[in-house]
Amino acid sequence: MIETNQLTKRYGDLIAVNNINLKLTEGDVFGFIGPNGSGKTTTMRMLATLLSPDYGEAYVCGMSIYTHPQEIRRLVGFMPDFFGVYDDMTVIEYLEFFAAAYRINGPGRRKVCEEKLELVDMAFKRDAMVNQLSRGQTQRIGLARVLLHEPQVLLLDEPASGLDPRARIEIRNLLKKLGEMKKTVIVSSHILPELADVCTRVGMIEKGHLIIDGYVDEVMRKARHSILLLIRVKDRLEAAAALIEQHPGVKSVETKNGTVFATLNTEVLDYSELPTLLLENGFKLTLFREEEVNLETAFMELTKGLVQ
Questions:
Q1: How far is 203 from 219, CA to CA, in rounded Å?
Q2: Could you give the CA distance from residue 232 to residue 103 in angstroms, rounded to a whole number?
Q3: I need a labelling partner for 288 at 20 to 30 A (CA). Which of 63, 105, 195, 255 fits?
Q4: For the whole model, what pTM was predicted?
């Protein structure tokens, strides 16, 4: 659905996007991660045919952004991080205005608008004035707008920016729905844990370079240099730590706040012997688990914090 080959954009001496190669298929929900100024928005605007690259190629739904921009725009829904609304329109009038721009005519236009309001859980605001909506409600109406013409590809630039916790959860649930509808979605965000919940793939961009691109579990594995185990026992914590430290697969052991933190050697992936060892020596386990690597940890491990 989306494929780029050495996609590059310059602004004078500044290389905003540097030789990005990306391939997404139908149903991929791609989390685009990076600091402000890293090139996320520029990449999305090129895919939406709103900016022309200086070098490289991009295909959306099999069509080149150079030769078929109008056809691509009919298949893409682009939602910028901030967008204007009209002060003198109700929500339903606002959607009908854009539906007409998408050439959705006749009696079916109102039905399409009503369906999209239901999809984003905003039917109760159909007759409200758009300039009286909260930030979260405005974002949901914006999402309804880009869905009016049933795009196959969605480019969502910071859809959760500036939202309160409840509104972020609502946007996250909407993104899950879109993935279930088999649409190809690129969503940029700084709210990393929420991206991990909804995305099938993530890409990390830094100073215009796409430094990481892969499925979420693959990215997590790249960020983890070795396995860290969290172990608690009912009593005799220090004795348990000493026993664990003697195991040849354990690199180091630390005790803190009633927990043993055991770091395994890099090559060790199977630690099934450790709980058996503890039980055989009379220890009663109350916790034994592997520390999870979340998307925030992966981002900090795999990037250097560079900006343009």
A1: 9
A2: 63
A3: 195
A4: 0.75
